[in-house]
């Protein structure tokens, strides 16, 4: 799990787009779209005036208030907001008067830190007078003083925004030649920092499929699997964020549930379950395969022949897909090189031989002798010692589900 500052991540992604020759046009407002049998006509207003273009496929990644979603006629059912929240980066005249961590009062919740100058607030009093108006220093100061009861003044404010716990999800991710990804397809409370990971995997899932269709390698029916694979994942995220929101409410019933959750956080199995739920590492797609290992995490394992031992993680350090060829004569590796030639997916074959499989690969503590498929594709990240991971995850779960520890900033985005 990687905690990343949103502004820093946007700069990195922008630089990568520029290096790939992608033109990013800012300050544009989409004004209309029309679908045809062979493409989509799009109109927008740029800083230079009205413009238009035609494309074979259109992907709407334009956020929770997506114009593409509305114009293409996607249904967007869900729950209305019940809580109104703020996050801001600011300076206070007396920061020592505001307690660190999470402070709950009858008026709401203030989360101060862990990052310097950052705070978030849950306001139980209802919506602001004008939800579309810019957030002002005076508004933030008033809400902060009312909720916390602290005698503080906001002397400077770098950024601030409002958000709610509204949870909505499109009925489908595809309508003919228009597709949606990220917040355009789903919105939810930012509690738990799951939004960016959800949107990034949407894009990764759709990207290779759309590339295969455009090249003519696959029929456009492949794009239907985008909805069937990604929508259930979004449903699960909406469910767990709604549960987290319920735990923040000020009523006695929610308070009792919070106390129970605080005790549950002391159980390793509970933390493991919540880690998988909120990190996305437990996500598995229904591939229609009988092998129950497909889609599971392997962990790091030695691979290769005795004379040239290496590890799975070392082989994957370059970020490429890996094919572990367990066939006796290495024919699967040769076949993969032929099949994948010229495709968007980069796949590197590592022949290990059938005789080396039984003692080398396990998953979840379960030996998979005789059950390992001919090829295994996995994605991994470098991690610290398991005891450090467990300890940190327990702290994050406590903050996320019971507010017994310092909360995580909404502007810090966790990507897995």
TrEMBL record:
PANTHER family: BINDING MONOOXYGENASE, PUTATIVE (JCVI)-RELATED, TRK SYSTEM POTASSIUM UPTAKE PROTEIN. It comes from the Bacteria. Keywords: FAD, Flavoprotein. Its cofactor is FAD. Residues 2-240 form the FAD-binding domain. InterPro entries: FAD-bd (IPR002938), FAD/NAD-bd_sf (IPR036188), RIFMO-like (IPR050641). GO terms for molecular function: FAD binding; oxidoreductase activity, acting on paired donors, with incorporation or reduction of molecular oxygen, NAD(P)H as one donor, and incorporation of one atom of oxygen. Transmembrane segments: none annotated. The keyword Flavoprotein applies. This is FAD-binding domain-containing protein.
């Amino acid at each position: 799990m990687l905690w990343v500052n949103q502004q820093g991540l946007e700069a990195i992604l922008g630089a990568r787009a520029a290096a790939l020759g992608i033109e990013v046009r800012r300050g544009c407002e989409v004004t209309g779209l029309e679908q045809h049998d062979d493409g989509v006509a799009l109109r927008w207003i740029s800083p230079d005036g009205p413009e238009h273009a035609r494309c074979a496929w259109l992907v709407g990644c334009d956020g929770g208030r997506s114009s593409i979603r509305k114009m293409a006629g996607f249904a967007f059912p869900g729950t209305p907001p019940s809580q109104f929240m703020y996050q801001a980066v600011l300076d206070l005249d007396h920061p020592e008067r505001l307690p660190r961590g999470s402070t709950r009062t009858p008026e709401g919740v203030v989360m101060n830190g862990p990052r310097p100058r950052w705070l978030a607030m849950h306001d139980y009093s209802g919506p602001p007078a004008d939800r579309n108006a810019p957030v002002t220093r005076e508004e933030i100061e008033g809400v902060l003083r009312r909720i916390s009861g602290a005698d503080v003044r906001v002397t400077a404010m770098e950024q601030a925004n409002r958000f709610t716990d509204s949870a909505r999800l499109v009925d489908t991710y595809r309508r003919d030649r228009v597709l949606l990804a990220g917040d355009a397809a789903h919105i939810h409370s930012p509690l738990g920092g799951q939004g960016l990971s959800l949107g990034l995997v949407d894009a990764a899932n759709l990207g290779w499929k759309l590339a295969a269709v455009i090249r003519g390698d696959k029929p456009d029916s492949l794009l239907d699997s985008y909805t069937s694979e990604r929508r259930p994942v979004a449903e699960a995220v909406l469910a767990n964020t709604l549960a987290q929101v319920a735990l923040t409410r000020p009523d006695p019933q929610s308070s009792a549930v919070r106390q129970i959750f605080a005790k549950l956080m002391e159980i390793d199995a509970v933390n493991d379950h919540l880690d998988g739920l909120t990190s996305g590492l437990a996500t598995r797609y229904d591939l229609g395969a009988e092998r129950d290992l497909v889609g599971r995490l392997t962990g790091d394992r030695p691979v290769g022949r005795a004379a040239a031992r290496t590890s799975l993680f070392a082989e994957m350090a370059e970020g490429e897909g890996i094919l572990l060829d367990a066939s006796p004569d290495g024919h699967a590796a040769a076949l993969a090189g032929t099949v994948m030639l010229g495709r968007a997916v980069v796949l590197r074959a590592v022949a290990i031989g059938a005789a080396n499989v039984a003692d080398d690969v396990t998953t979840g503590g379960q030996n998979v002798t005789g059950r390992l498929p001919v090829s295994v594709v996995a994605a991994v990240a470098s991690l610290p010692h398991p005891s450090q991971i467990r300890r940190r995850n327990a702290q994050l779960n406590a903050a996320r589900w019971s507010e017994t520890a310092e909360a995580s900033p909404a502007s810090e985005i966790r990507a897995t």
